[in-house]
């Protein structure tokens, strides 16, 4: 025989269960929030920033895709004592029996009272798909060997896993994110902007660009990071004569922009396995008639979804963000570009900038014009999913204050540091997971099956 208290508890449980079922499609604002205070940068003399041993040893080694198709890799590194040569020796076997090499270029740049080391960029072309290559830099002085695996050839049902990180910086939280990601199955990384946060230091102390280059080298030397520029790449200080936006970033981080007839390192497109990735610049002109606008429409039209079924857009400032941090900053770009990405059935848009995580339902908001007032986002299975993932762990800390109530388009939001994985299974299904740093790598704090927007439409029509 149950007591009155037990019966009321049972009744309450049933009511709660029913309310959960009826709200099962409502968004979730996670109460799990950590470290709202600013994070601390790792000291300059830390082992995580260690300069490799040996005279003129190559450091800050990083690679990115070097062409549109995936048969080329740009290898970049820095030497400090003297230029040395810009040769990359490479081959399919480790050791020194390389048969091939390429010669790139080396240069320096100055920023206020800082002068960079010798920054080398060499592009290896003509690589085979889905093949492991070894490469050596600094031959004849202090050689260092690394390796990478080229992507599979673009075909309809090619599995591939991308990692996603944004706003990393170089704090101990950044280290946690990096280490978690390096334990994941990510094959290359979609980086959504704000790299070193050197501009948090007086006169954008570019020594912090060097420490960052060494900090991420354990990953960037072995798999391509696909770069997006953020506001912390602007490095614009007219008071001391630094008036060339993106100067350190563009000297250090090349992109294959010429392969898609882009006129700027800051916007470009690549095919990689089953995906086409289009990278945009939030801090360059994007209005109608501008170079970025015209290029973007051409890049969208050039995608063949029977070859690369998945279409991914990277941009720094998010177009859907219900955090109060950087609220509405991406709105003008959304208004201009969203009709095209809905039209071309972009699958997913990754953004950073906001130091928290948020995932939307598939959503569109493209009916508005200046007189009709139709400006409410609508759930639409053929529209993109938007992910904000600027939670890499930088010195500025987390953004923990959300607008209330949670908007209907927002599926999940939480202010914790972490990274994402976008696992493409075939031409119709992918799986996105977000991994907060407090959990083991195998744990997904948020996950969603992503249906391919192009093929979903084709099969459900
Ligand atoms: Fe940012």
Automatic annotation (TrEMBL):
Calcineurin-like phosphoesterase domain residues: 161-357
Catalytic activity reported: a phosphate monoester + H2O = an alcohol + phosphate
Enzyme's top EC category: hydrolase
Keywords for the protein's UniProt record, in alphabetical order: Glycoprotein, Hydrolase, Iron, Metal-binding, Signal, Zinc
Domain Purple acid phosphatase C-terminal: 383-443
EC numbers: 3.1.3.2
CDD domains (alphabetical): MPP_PAPs (cd00839)
Signal peptide residues on this chain, from the entry's feature table: 1-26
Superkingdom of this protein's organism: Eukaryota
Pfam family, one: Pur_ac_phosph_N
InterPro entries found in the cross-reference section: Calcineurin-like_PHP, Metallo-depent_PP-like, MPP_PAP, PAPs-like, PAPs_C, PAPs_N, Purple_acid_Pase-like_N
Claim: Cytoplasm is one of the keywords in the record: no
Keyword GTP-binding carried by entry: no
MF annotations from Gene Ontology: acid phosphatase activity; metal ion binding
Purple acid phosphatase N-terminal domain sequence ranges: 58-150
Family listed: Belongs to the metallophosphoesterase superfamily. Purple acid phosphatase family.
Identification of the protein by name: Purple acid phosphatase
The organism of origin for this protein: Riccia sorocarpa
Lineage: Eukaryota, Viridiplantae, Streptophyta, Embryophyta, Marchantiophyta
């Amino acid at each position: 025989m149950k007591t009155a208290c037990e019966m009321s508890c049972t009744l309450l449980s049933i009511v709660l269960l029913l309310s959960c079922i009826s709200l099962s499609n409502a968004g979730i604002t996670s109460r799990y929030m950590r470290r709202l205070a600013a994070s601390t940068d790792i000291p300059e003399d830390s082992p995580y920033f260690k300069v490799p041993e040996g005279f003129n040893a190559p450091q800050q080694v990083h690679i990115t895709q070097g062409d549109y198709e995936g048969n080329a890799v740009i290898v970049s590194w820095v030497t400090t004592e003297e230029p040395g040569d810009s040769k990359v020796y490479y081959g399919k076997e480790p050791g020194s029996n390389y048969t091939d090499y390429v010669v790139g270029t080396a240069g320096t740049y100055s920023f206020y009272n800082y002068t960079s080391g010798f920054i080398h960029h060499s592009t290896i072309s003509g690589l085979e798909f889905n093949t492991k290559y070894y490469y050596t830099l600094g031959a004849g002085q202090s050689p260092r060997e690394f390796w990478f695996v080229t992507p599979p050839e673009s075909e309809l049902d090619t599995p591939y896993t991308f990692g996603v990180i944004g706003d990393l910086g170089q704090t101990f939280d950044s280290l946690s994110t990096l280490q978690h990601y390096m334990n994941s199955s990510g094959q290359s990384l979609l980086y959504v902007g704000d790299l070193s946060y050197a501009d948090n230091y007086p006169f954008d102390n570019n020594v912090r660009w060097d420490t960052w280059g060494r900090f991420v080298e354990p990953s960037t030397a072995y798999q391509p990071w696909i770069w997006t520029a953020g506001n912390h790449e602007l490095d614009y200080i007219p008071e001391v004569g630094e008036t060339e936006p993106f100067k350190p970033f563009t000297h250090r981080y090349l992109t294959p922009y010429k392969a898609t007839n882009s006129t700027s390192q800051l916007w470009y497109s690549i095919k990689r396995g089953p995906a086409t990735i289009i990278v945009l610049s939030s801090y360059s002109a994007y209005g109608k008639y501008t170079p970025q606008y015209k290029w973007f429409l051409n890049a969208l039209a050039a995608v063949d979804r029977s070859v690369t079924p998945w279409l991914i857009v990277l941009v720094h400032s998010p177009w859907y963000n219900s955090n109060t941090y950087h609220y509405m900053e991406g709105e003008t770009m959304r208004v201009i570009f969203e009709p095209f990405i809905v039209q071309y059935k972009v699958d997913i848009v990754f953004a950073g900038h906001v130091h928290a995580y948020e995932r939307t339902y598939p959503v569109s908001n493209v009916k508005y014009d200046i007189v009709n007032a139709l400006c409410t986002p609508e759930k639409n299975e053929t529209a993109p999913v938007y992910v904000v993932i600027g939670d890499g762990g930088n010195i500025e800390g987390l953004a923990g204050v959300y607008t209330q109530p949670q908007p209907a388009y927002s599926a999940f939001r939480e202010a914790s540091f972490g990274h994402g994985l976008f696992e493409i299974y075939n031409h119709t299904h992918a799986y996105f997971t977000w991994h907060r740093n407090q959990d083991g790598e195998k744990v997904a704090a948020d996950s969603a099956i992503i249906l391919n927007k192009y093929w979903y439409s084709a099969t459900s029509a």
